[in-house]
């Protein structure tokens, strides 16, 4: 079972752009670039995936953190990512769910 936490950011980025920005901010590589399953491995069994609005949907960009360990691990990783992104990107972070 996987647990998740989601960061919601108001930004206009494509999925590859958002992943590149996040990877640079976290100083981590993007895995599976240009494939349907692109993610950033965060360590401790966590990974980050980005979802962008589909045609006709409004913003936001969602950043999903998944953990195989626990909901608490997913939330802690998400909070750490949120802290880095707020400082490094200037993105308006709406909230953290999870």
The dominant shape is globular
User: Domains counted in the coordinates: how many?
Assistant: 1
Low-confidence stretches: none
Number of continuous helical runs:
2
Helix content: 25-40%
Mean pLDDT: 89
Describe this structure as you would to a colleague.
The protein is of the alpha+beta class. The protein has two helices and five strands. It has helices at residues 15-26, 71-89, and strands spanning 3-10, 40-43, 46-51, 61-67, 92-97. The protein has a five-stranded antiparallel beta sheet with strand order 2-3-4-1-5. Helix 1 (15-26) crosses helix 2 (71-89). The chain starts with a strand and ends with a strand.
Provide a quick synopsis of the model.
The protein is of the alpha+beta class and 98 residues long.
Short key terms for the protein model shown above:
98 residues; 32% helix; five-stranded antiparallel beta sheet; 2 helices; TATA-Binding Protein; alpha+beta; globular; 5 strands; 32% strand
List the helices and strands and how they pair.
Layout: E1 3-10, H1 15-26, E2 40-43, E3 46-51, E4 61-67, H2 71-89, E5 92-97
Antiparallel strand pairs: 1-4, 1-5, 2-3, 3-4
């Amino acid at each position: 079972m996987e647990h998740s936490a989601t960061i919601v950011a108001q930004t206009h980025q494509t999925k590859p752009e958002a992943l590149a920005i996040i990877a640079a901010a976290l100083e981590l590589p993007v895995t599976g670039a240009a494939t349907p399953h692109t993610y950033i491995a965060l360590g401790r069994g966590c990974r980050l995936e980005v979802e962008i609005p589909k045609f006709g949907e409004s913003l936001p960009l969602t950043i999903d953190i998944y953990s195989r360990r626990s909901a608490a691990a997913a939330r802690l990783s998400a909070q750490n990512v949120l802290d880095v992104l707020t400082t490094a990107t200037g993105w308006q972070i709406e909230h953290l769910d999870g």
